[in-house]
Amino acid sequence: MFKKLVWIAILLFIATNGLLVLLDHEGKVNRTAYITEWEAVDEKDLYEKIGTSGVVAYTEEHYIYFDDSAGSFQAFLVEEGSTINTGDPLYSYRVDSYFETENLLQNELATLNGEISAIEDAITEMASYQIPKPSEPVIRSDDEDNQSVTVVEQSDPIEAELLKEQYLIEKESELSAKKDQAKSIQSQLEDLHTTGDTVTVESPYEGKIKAVSTTLDDPVIIIEDTRLQVKGELEEADRKLVEPGLEVEIEIADLDKDFKGIIKSVGDSPVNEVTVNQGSNYPFEVSFDEEEALDAVLPGYHTDLEIIQNQSLQAATVNKNLVFNNHVWKLTDEGKVEKELIETGIEMGNDVELTSGINPGDFLLTENINVDYAGAPFIAPFNYRKAPWLNLVDGKQWTEFFVTGIISR
Known about the structure:
Elements: H1 2-22, E1 33-34, E2 38-40, E3 42-58, E4 61-64, E5 71-76, E6 83-84, E7 89-95, H2 98-128, E8 138-141, E9 149-152, H3 157-195, E10 198-202, E11 207-212, E12 221-224, E13 228-235, H4 236-239, E14 247-252, E15 257-266, E16 281-288, E17 302-319, E18 327-331, E19 337-341, E20 343-348, E21 351-356, E22 363-365, E23 378-379, H5 398-408
Parallel strand pairs: 1-23
Antiparallel strand pairs: 2-22, 3-13, 3-17, 4-12, 5-7, 6-11, 7-10, 8-9, 11-12, 13-16, 14-15, 14-17, 15-16, 17-21, 18-19, 18-22, 20-21
Helix pairs in contact: 2-3
C-alpha cells in the first residue's frame, strides 16, 4: 500500500510541474533548454552559376578586298593554310593612275589617324574615371503626403569596375587593329612612291590564311585570327542574367582540364527564327584568361561552361536545414538560446548564405524548438572523450609517463 502511495505522489508531482510549465504564459517558471546537437557557422565562398555548353573557335575572320578600279591585279603572295604576321605581303597590283591612287591612300590614312586619336581619347578618359564608392540607399518620397517611399539602390561598384575593365580591353584591342591598318596603308604609299606604279598590300592582321580567291571575287583573302574563344547560345531565361564581364569556368572533357574565362559579348538578336511556339536562343562569346596555356586546345573542342552570375566570398554559411522560416536558434556566450531573425542570400547545394544576424563561428541548433525557450539558458550532455585535458597526453603513452613519474620519486 505504501509503495502505491509513493508512485501516486510521484506521478502527481510530475503532472503538476508539467501543467505549471504548460500554463505558464507569463514566464514565472524558469525553463532550461536541453540540447544535444549543434553546428558551427562556416565561412565559405558561394556562387550562383548558369550551366551551359559551348565550342572552341577562332575569335574572328578578317576579310581582304581588291578594288579593280584602282588598277590591275598582279599576283597573290600567300597560300591557303599559311601563317602570317602583321606587315606580311598579301598581294600586289599595278595602279592605273598614280595621283588618284596616292590621293585615295592618303585619305584612308587620314581617316584612320582620326579614328586612332578618338580611341586614344576614349581610353584616357575611361582610365582616369574613378568609380564612386558605395553609398547609403536614397529614400525618395513618391507622393505629397509621404505615405510611401521608394528605396533607390546605388550601382554596384564591383560590377562597374568590371565593366570599366572590359571597356578598356575592347578599346585597346580596337586601337591596336586601327594602328596595324594605318601601318599597312602607310606601307602601300611608300611602295607607290618608290616604284611609281606598283603597290604591295600588306596584312594588317596576324593569323592563318583560310581562303584565297583565285577568281578575284571579294573577299580575295580570308584571314582567321588564331586566338581562341568559346562560342555558345543562351536560352531566353538565362539571357536576362548574363552580361559582358562575368567570370566563366570552362571545362574541356577531351583534355580533362579546366580553364578560366570571361564573357566577351552577348547578342541582342536571337540566332534562330523568331516564332511564337519556340523559345529564342542568343549568341555569346567567352574569351580565355590571358594567363591560360592553350597549346593543347583546338578549334572544335566542345566545352561545359559555368557562368558565375553572382558570388559571395567568405560568406557566413550553414546547412539550409538549420534555417526555420526566417530565423535560427543561436547559442550565445552567456549560455542562452536566442531566436535570431536572419536574411538569406545565395544557396549552393545544401549550403545557404546568412547575410545578417549571424557571423562565422557562431553556434546554431540543428532542430527547431518551442518559441517559449527563446532567451532560456541551455545545458548540453558532457562528452568525457572530448575533455580538453585528455589531449595533454597521448592515450597510448600515459602508462609510460605514469611509471616514469613513480621512478623519479
